[in-house]
Amino acid sequence: MSPGGHLLTTLAACAGSAFLTRDLPLAQSLSLTAGIAAGGFLIDVDHALDYLVFEGQRDLRPDTFLRYHLERRMKRVVLALHSYELFAGLGFLAWWLDVPALWGYLMGALMHLALDITFNGELTPKSISAFYSFTYRLAHRFDAVALLGPPGGVAVPERFWPAFFMGGVPARDPSAPPRYAMRNFSKEQGKPRS
Fold this sequence. Notes:
Blueprint: H1 3-20, H2 26-40, H3 45-54, H4 62-70, H5 84-97, H6 100-120, H7 128-131, H8 134-139, H9 144-148, E1 154-157, H10 160-166, E2 169-170, E3 182-183
Antiparallel strand pairs: 1-2, 1-3
Helix pairs in contact: 1-2, 2-6, 5-6
């Protein structure tokens, strides 16, 4: 799912949480809602860690960072926070400690993961469900091509805000008329078509 899609769904989930927990003590309601915000949207901080640490990228302009991921130019995909194994551990801790913020994080992160599986599957020729297992990614040495297929085949809006809210879509036939300005990438070369 696009970052903007995650932002909007997380805002809706936070509003719902605040409304449904309005009769709880304020600290509990706020910590649950803050946890949902962290799990639903801020979980994507691991994309920034991959970009800086594993990819060695230093260009921190938002448009460059966003386009790097949407156009699938990564070589390594670690995504430590996007994993079933982490969620299982957090689920055990949430049950054991019964901390509202942890329950909220787990709810937000599971919502995030479900949306990723639903919407990112059409862009991934490999198994999107298996991709969210850290063990599966580790077994493939976090190699982006082995996990997600070759770069390219994804069309991304030219401007930042449309790209932020729409994300990438499967590239269309270049002879088809465009519905809106998109960069179209060939699957073979991973380069823009002219």
